[in-house]
């Protein structure tokens, strides 16, 4: 049985106006559903071990979102263990969902950067969607290069952010990834899009979580 570790943010507010936020429900629930259908073991870790928060609960009527909230998914996520207490080397893949929350506590978290680096370098699968690719930012590989340098990457775009949370985010994610050398790919705003580059898989927005998980599964099954 393949093992996937979903690493979530603990933040619940962002920006100068303390906008309420969390991990975006479909970006957790849709990948969770895909991993579950693949019969993988799915575990949750958070950066500080506190109960994580969910955003976008208004989309709870979506079948995979509802199944997550009323089934085992949300119950497991609420018991997410502290990342420092997890032996991540035992997992075949790690996945970082988005929501605005990761923009608060994931840009510079030293342990997360180490976990992403080590997971990538041992050729396990690293996946992230929407604002989740902020977890890849500032990750340096053993040769000193940025992880995203020269990699085909997507994330929540500048155009999407301008229409969503420009006043709340501390920086523009598309710009930051590009500045570290990412070969950045987008489609029209809010359309599903995901891309794999070796064992690294990223997606653009909330509609892209399912595609990211499916690409991760394809790599894991290869």
UniProtKB/TrEMBL annotation:
InterPro entries: Class_I_gatase-like (IPR029062), DJ-1/PfpI (IPR002818), Prot/Nucl_acid_deglycase (IPR050325). GO terms for biological process: methylglyoxal catabolic process to D-lactate via S-lactoyl-glutathione. The keyword Cytoplasm does not apply. One of its GO terms (molecular function) is glyoxalase III activity. Residues 27-217 form the DJ-1/PfpI domain. CDD domains: GATase1_Hsp31_like. One of its GO terms (cellular component) is cytoplasm. Keywords: Lyase, Stress response. PANTHER family: GLUTATHIONE-INDEPENDENT GLYOXALASE HSP31-RELATED, PROTEIN/NUCLEIC ACID DEGLYCASE DJ-1-RELATED. This is Thiamine biosynthesis protein ThiJ.
